[in-house]
Amino acid sequence: MTQAGKLRLGVNIDHVATIRNARGGAHPDPVRAARAAAAAGADGITAHLREDRRHIGDEDITRLTREIDLPLNLEMAATEEMLEIALRHRPHASCLVPEKREERTTEGGLDVAAEHRQLRPYISELKKAGIRVSLFIDPDPVQIAVAKALGAPVIELHTGAYCEAWNAGEKERAKAELARIAAAAEEGARQGLEVHAGHGLAFDTVGPVAALPQVMELNIGHFLIGEAIFSGLDSAIKRMRALMDEARAGAAGARIA
Asked: pTM of the entire structure?
């Protein structure tokens, strides 16, 4: 995939499972959501198997690897339990993320600079198994340099601070956070890393990130699942795909004014 190529969309289906688990039972089925995402134009499926299993469960991962043709990106903490699960299922990719039991969602990126000794063996084992490893990090040059040194071929830049600033109406802070993402994407590509991005992206925030030529993939979930309540998953994904493509082509209005 070259920088001029199509920007990939990975659809995170975690929160279909969140709704299912609120009541128990089998509905709504996240695997059905993955099939719908594929039909709507997703390029991959992302699922985060958390230690506390608050949304995606082990059987979901088993079914996704068995029943879905799209590449599966397994988000996981760097623990022995999760490593064993990844090595058993052999997803296309594993994205190592920070995880705190008390958090509502992933808060910030991995501090790979501080945790490099802990992360190194997990990255090594996943790579030996033929699993593409990505590290979910804040858009920071130190984190990028350490990710490179650890041998991870992919970084995923945390876009949450940018999205939060935009949603709060703080345009100057949003501009500053977007500039950090842009600089990090450029640095990651310069280091020979494949650059992905995600967290908090919505219809009104995706354009400026999608317009960055170094970014090869966006992973978006919570917003799409929420929007699906009102417009349907197919419609939400197709609109997101169109906005990404428009921004990538340099259409007017894709950047923050």
From this structure: 0.92
